[in-house]
Design goal:
CATH architecture of the largest domain: 3-Layer(aba) Sandwich
Number of domains: 2
Oligomer: single chain
Structural class: alpha/beta
Largest sheet: 8 strands, mixed
Radius of gyration: 27 Å
CATH class of the largest domain: Alpha Beta
Length: 307
C-alpha cells in the first residue's frame, strides 16, 4: 500500500496550518475525500476515519448554528476518531472551537482560500496519482500525436535514437530508460518519469542530452496515458512478419490491457515513421475505422462483381 503524508498535502497546496501541527506526519492511504455532515449530527457509526475530512461552507455554517455545548460535543466526537486531517475551504474563520479539539488530539486542521468543489477536484487528482499502484519498466515513454507510447526493446536496439527522431518531429518525451507506470483506474495506466530522469535522453556515444534545453519546453511533458506498447526487436531474415494485421496482440500492466505491436528493426527502416504510423492507426481504430476490415470489404466486393 502506497502512503503519502499530511505534510505532502500542505506543501502541494500551500495549506495554512491552524492546529495540530504535531500530526503533519500522519499517513494518508486512501484517495477518497469525505465531507462530514451526518457525523456532526451525532451519527458516527460508519465514519470513514482513514479519509481526509473536508468542510465547506455548508458544514461550517451548520456547526455555527449549534449551541456551544452541542458544537463542543459533536466536534470532539469526530476529532477523537483520528482521521488524517481536516481541511476548511473558502478561507472560513471563527474556528476556535475546532482548533481546540484538533490541538488536543494532534490532528492537523488545515485551511485553504479555494472554493470547495474546485479544491476537491484538485486534491482527488493529486491523491489518485500519488497513491496509485506503480511499477518501473525499462523503456522510453513518449506522446505521439496525443497517443501514449511505451517503447521497449533490448539494450542497444535503438529506443532512445527513435525517441530523438520523434522529438525532432515535434512529439514529446515523457521518460527515458526508466518509465514509471501507474494505474489510476481499472482501465487506465499512465507513464511518467521518476523526477531525476525528467527531460533527459541517454544516447550511446553522446551521453545525456537535456531535451527541453535543446528542443524547448514543449518537447517534454510529465505524464501521458499509455495507449500502445511497442516492442523493437532485431530483424530475423527467415521469420514471417504479418504485413496485413491479421494478428492482434495485447499486453497487460497492473492488470490493464493495452494493444501490443512488435516492430522489427534493421538498417534502412524508418523506425520513428513506423511508430507515428502505429499511433495514427490506433487513433483511427478508436474512431471506428479498421484498414484491414476495409481491405477485406474491397476484396469481397471485387469477388461479387466478378461473379
Amino acid at each position: 500500500m502506497k502512503t503519502i503524508f499530511v505534510k505532502d498535502l500542505v506543501d502541494k497546496f500551500q495549506l495554512e496550518v491552524l492546529a495540530g501541527e504535531v500530526g503533519l506526519d500522519r499517513p494518508i492511504t486512501e484517495d477518497d475525500i469525505h465531507r462530514p455532515g451526518l457525523e456532526f449530527t451525532g451519527f458516527i457509526e460508519y465514519f470513514p476515519h482513514n479519509r481526509i475530512q473536508l468542510l465547506g461552507r455548508q458544514e461550517v455554517d451548520y456547526l455555527h448554528s449549534l449551541t456551544h455545548e452541542e458544537r463542543d460535543e459533536r466536534i470532539g466526537n469526530v476529532v477523537r476518531l483520528h482521521p488524517p486531517c481536516f481541511i476548511i475551504t473558502r478561507g472560513q474563520e471563527e474556528l476556535t472551537y475546532f482548533q481546540k479539539h484538533c490541538s488536543e488530539q494532534g490532528i492537523p486542521l488545515l485551511r485553504t482560500s479555494q472554493k470547495t468543489t474546485k479544491f476537491i477536484t484538485k486534491v482527488n487528482n493529486f491523491l489518485e496519482k500519488s497513491l496509485a499502484k506503480e511499477i518501473g519498466v525499462h523503456g522510453v515513454c513518449l506522446n505521439v500525436f496525443g497517443v501514449g507510447i511505451l517503447l521497449r526493446g533490448e539494450s542497444g536496439i535503438g529506443k532512445s535514437e527513435a525517441a530523438l527522431a520523434l522529438i525532432e518531429r515535434g512529439h514529446r518525451l515523457i521518460s527515458d530508460d526508466l518509465v514509471m507506470i501507474k494505474q489510476i483506474d481499472p482501465e487506465t495506466i499512465i507513464g511518467t518519469h521518476n523526477i531525476s530522469n525528467r527531460g533527459f535522453l541517454s544516447l550511446r556515444g553522446i551521453g545525456l542530452v537535456d531535451i527541453p534545453r535543446m528542443h524547448g519546453s514543449g518537447s517534454v511533458q510529465d505524464e501521458t496515458e499509455i495507449n500502445i506498447d511497442i516492442l523493437l526487436s532485431p530483424w530475423k531474415d527467415k521469420h514471417h512478419y504479418d504485413a496485413l494485421g491479421f494478428e492482434r496482440f495485447t499486453v497487460s500492466y497492473l492488470d490493464v490491457t493495452i494493444p501490443h505491436v512488435e516492430i522489427p528493426v534493421r538498417p534502412g527502416r524508418d523506425v520513428a515513421g513506423l511508430i507515428t504510423t502505429a499511433a495514427k492507426n490506433w487513433r483511427l481504430q478508436q474512431e471506428g475505422y479498421d484498414a484491414l476490415e476495409e481491405f477485406q470489404n474491397r476484396i469481397n466486393l471485387g469477388q461479387e462483381m466478378g461473379n
